[in-house]
Amino acid sequence: MRDISFDTIRDAVAELSVQACCRLPEPLLEAMRRSSRQEASPTGQDILKQLLLNADIAAKEDCPVCQDTGLAVVFADIGQEVHITGGLFEDAVNAGIARGYTGGFLRKSSVAEPLFERKNTGDNTPAILHIRLVPGDRIHLRLAPKGAGSENKGRLFMLVPADGIEGVKNAVLEAVRQAGASPCPPMVIGVGIGGNMETACLCAKRACARDVDSRNPDPRYAELEDELLELVNGLGTGPQGLGGTTTAFKVNIEFCATHIASLPVAVNINCNAARHAEIVL
Amino acid sequence: MLHRLTTPLSKDTIRTLRIGDTALITGTIYAARDAAHKRMDEALDRGDPLPADLRGQLIYYVGPTPARPGQAIGSAGPTTSGRMDAYTPRLLKLGLAGMIGKGNRSQAVMGAIRENVCVYFAATGGAGALLSRCIRKYTVLAYPELGTEAFAAMEVEDFPVTVVADCRGGDQYKEGSRPYCKFS
Predict the structure, then answer these.
(1) Which residues in A lie closer than 8 A to residue B68 (C-beta atoms)?
(2) Do A133 and A155 fall within a single domain?
(3) How many domains would you assign to chain A?
(4) pTM (2 d.p.)
(5) In CA terms, which of A196, A232, B102, B103 is 20 to 30 Å from B122?
(6) Tens place of pLDDT for every residue, chain B, 184 residues?
(7) What's the complex ipTM?
């Protein structure tokens, strides 16, 4: 067993919050640079240049890239040999979110209850926490703040096996077409295929939080990622929806086993500020 | 075409704006988003005055991050406008000149923009750090308990926007994608 303390986890989460909100991942910046050269629309080129300049200012001044610093989605892969000391893991994550969002001048966008009072919790807790038990004695934390402009455009399609690959393509196209300019394109699109209702959505979320230079390890799905990207960019939505050839930087797919009668497809859209930061403890 | 605009906007100025044009806005604009709109709507229902005289003015849909010490405001890019669709026609009818936000609007809002000679601008979503540099002052005028969603006056200088809906019924979100769309 290896001990990891409450304080270590809390401090790591606090640091990841600020890092993720203020510094975009390098592969995303590279995709922005490439797109700014390849984008056909002059307005689109201008927007991509603005986004690059924005990322530069944000990193230099520790200013959030986007004011919607989101709900904090935390993916925690916890090694089975880890022993957490000094408190509960979930409390440590939330303490880190509170500290990072308050001390880091990030926006608190979490309301405690969705329908009647919608009262802000004041410190952006609770985190949306996805825990997996994995081999080893480490904790891998990936924090992906997710704003509502893009999150609100997510879709779930409970397809059937006969819908096949065409069905998946149509579902993704419909989701992106309907999202229009609202999720702040160019977007990063996470597609979850298989599982049941909730695992399809979780697959899509994990796909969304992957780097834009990653590919699904299964070559058939990697090829489908490329095909979907080409299709989506053919919609002409373009940067900020003002028209152009860069509607998305990347489509990422995650899949999992499913029922003989099911073909769930979840589409989770991320905005141009496709943020995440990670650490291994 | 690039316009240099100073608020408040006259109807004559608004008539010169076309979708796809860019503009740099200087002067006072008002920050309000979901919760502040709901409050304003309720105030109007009761016959109470709005937190500011909005005639000829622009509402910016924004919920900024907290300012660091010594700064006017934190990150301050636009939020999705569509969520304010239910409240917007009423405000336009009362003399609001237009809005700054991002994303498509409902038919009712597009109709109200045309009928009342108004304008809808988009600022770049995701460029909150860059846009905050154009905001000199941020003063909460009403609903402080809403925090980031409070109603506020903002002094802006050369705030960059694109005209996405004009008073002739133009919709840049429809027109802009057409040349690049590979689907019929």
Answers:
(1) 62-63, 105
(2) no
(3) 2
(4) 0.95
(5) A232
(6) 999 999 999 999 999 999 999 999 999 999 999 999 999 999 999 999 999 999 999 999 999 999 999 999 999 999 999 999 999 999 999 999 999 999 999 999 999 999 999 999 999 999 999 999 999 999 999 999 999 999 999 999 999 999 999 999 999 999 999 999 998 7
(7) 0.93
